[in-house]
Amino acid sequence: MALDRAEQALAAIRESGGRITSDRRAIIEALAASTEHLTVEQLAERVWTRHPDVNLATIYRTVELVEHLGIGFHVHMGHGPSRWHLADEVHQHLVCSVCGAVTDIPDETLDPLREQIVSTTGFVVDAHHFSLTGTCAACSRVA
Amino acid sequence: MALDRAEQALAAIRESGGRITSDRRAIIEALAASTEHLTVEQLAERVWTRHPDVNLATIYRTVELVEHLGIGFHVHMGHGPSRWHLADEVHQHLVCSVCGAVTDIPDETLDPLREQIVSTTGFVVDAHHFSLTGTCAACSRVA
DNA sequence: TTCCGTGCAAACAATTTGCAATAGA
DNA sequence: TCTATTGCAAATTGTTTGCACGGAA
Predict the structure, then answer these.
(1) Of the residues A71, A86, A101, which one is the last residue of a structural domain?
(2) Residue B111 pLDDT > 70, yes or no?
(3) Chain D footprint positions (protein CB, under 7 Å)
(4) How far apart are the CA of A17 and the nearest CA of chain B, in angstroms?
(5) Which of A20, A130, B6, B96 fits as disulfide partner to B101, beta carbons 3.0 to 4.6 Å?
(6) Residue B22 burial (CB < 10 Å; 0-12/13-18/19+)?
(7) Are both A50 and A101 inside the same structural domain?
(8) Which chain B positions have a beta carbon within 8 Å of A125's beta carbon?
């Protein structure tokens, strides 16, 4: 559950020699509590409901730390800011360019594509860093 | 060939009611002359070798115009600025996150993945807008 | 002549950074 | 205590915009 993920992240920070501060705890708990992929600004809003004094720069630094430890990731979805999430398991993101809806799909969905690309070009695809854009079911129907 | 693509783009601008200026001609020819995917800054450098007075804002505006007409595209490759190219045909981009090398692959490579995704989720993947990241053959070998 | 296109400089959004003050371990 | 973390404000990077002037058609 969410809190476990937060505790895991905090433990990882401690293990890596970092300190557990109240700011970091607040930021990581807010991130863990969300099932969505949050921009730094969205994350800040949630943190600030309980901890209004946490600085934006601290959020940027924490989120970067968490990524560096391999616990969190950021994804680019369309234009605009990066979006962050704690990772239980790697997954891919489909972002509708019409309505902005995000659909998560399992990482293995890309395996056949990966095999084909690696066998023809030697390139190892590893992309959860960018989302796949297109048109979601609802918006395709309309168009 | 490159000049043809430039002339095509200029013709499309004229057809859409736009004017052909020396700035636009210089920008589009520089873009057409490159096989690479250029950032606005790289494009500017090339334009400036012959036309040093073209303003950066004009390059941004021209490149946006060309995309709006469906002749050019921008792709996001890793972090940093967007990269632009005139489109003969849509293709996908593999970007090595170690060395930055770009490998182009045909758009059809994604067709099986598209089919699977559309049949399971209804989502129509259309993504040449984002590149696929990973590790290229050379860098995989080292690592 | 009539607008479209351009230069310029300022505005912008997202993010990063230097440095002194502060607070975990 | 000792050093990692934070706040603050300024710097950066990439890009967009308002507006008056100048040049295609």
Answers:
(1) A86
(2) yes
(3) 4-9, 13-18, 23-25
(4) 27
(5) B96
(6) exposed
(7) no
(8) 94, 132-134
